[in-house]
Write a structure and sequence with these properties.
Distance between the termini: 26 Å
CATH class of the largest domain: Alpha Beta
Shape: globular
Strand order of the largest sheet: 9-8-7-6-5-4-3-10
Number of helices: 12
Radius of gyration: 21 Å
Largest sheet: 8 strands, parallel
CATH superfamily of the largest domain: NADP-dependent oxidoreductase domain
Structural class: alpha/beta
CATH topology of the largest domain: TIM Barrel
Number of strands: 10
Number of domains: 2
Helix content: 25-40%
Strand content: 5-15%
Amino acid sequence: MKYKLLGHSGLRVSELCLGTMTFGKEWGWGSDYDESKAVFDTYANAGGNFLDTANRYTEGTSERWLGEFIAAGRDHFVLATKYALKDRNGDPNFAGNHRKNLMRSVRDSLQRLNTEYIDLLWLHAWDFTTSEEEVMRGLDDLISRGLVHYIGISDTPAWIVSRANTIAEMRGWNRFAALQIEYSLLQRSPERDLLPMAEALNLAVTPWAPLAGGALSGKYLRQEPGRVKEESIRRSEWANGIVAEVVSLANKLDCSPAQVALSWVRQQGQQVIPIVGARRPEQLLDSLGCLNVTLGADDMALLDKASAIELGFPHEFLKSDGVKDVLFGGTSTQVQQRKSI
């Protein structure tokens, strides 16, 4: 296991993050205590130190068990949790991005995790009712009090993330150091705005569902059971075509389809740190095997072509030859271009 810096911070985190949404069976498909501990131990024994959970995961069981698992080595692990999703039905202030819920949610997470601090606190999803100023000031206050060390944001439009970090920078508050998004060969829409923004703002990117709920492991092509429903786009004819290319390449490289899919995500940039989850240790061991797989330029190009999406306006417009001609006066091939994702 190697380690990367978390965005513009100096925090050192594993090149793969362990997602713990499977810790607990409250949602009908997770792991029991012993299975969860075995998954955790497999990750820790491989050198992993970056752990991801949330207040809502398995109704709090994920946080409670994870707190037990890391107790003996708390300062070794980089513990990330989230706030914003509901902790109680029927009460509007037990959910959302606002300060009241932020402070309450963090207090409850600290109790469940049995820890004095959270290394990385994610805003889980944008609620479109709380101002960026309120969010960033509240998060900065938590850091000032020593309850949180770093902050990140998940499942939020690029323009809001950019505005929030700009406000924080202008006010001298702490900025988001990381961005969490869905990203995989079956979900490439973040390439339109979120990934270029992350590169420009020096944010780490931690993709969730890099295997698209297991679809990219090839399990559904093999008619194996899973929790992705047949009507899901992840099991559509379009998706199956991409998965078939992944399986074919895996056979060629003598590795698993999951390792190919994870390697494609990992090779999208130095700042990309996939979140891998598992119900059983053997599933996690397979995912960890991606650290020994490097896709060549031809392999990447094959997968890029198979899963290509249209970037849409204004991206397609701005990269057209006619527009580049009038923007560069016919010299676009002579002028250094910034890297585009």
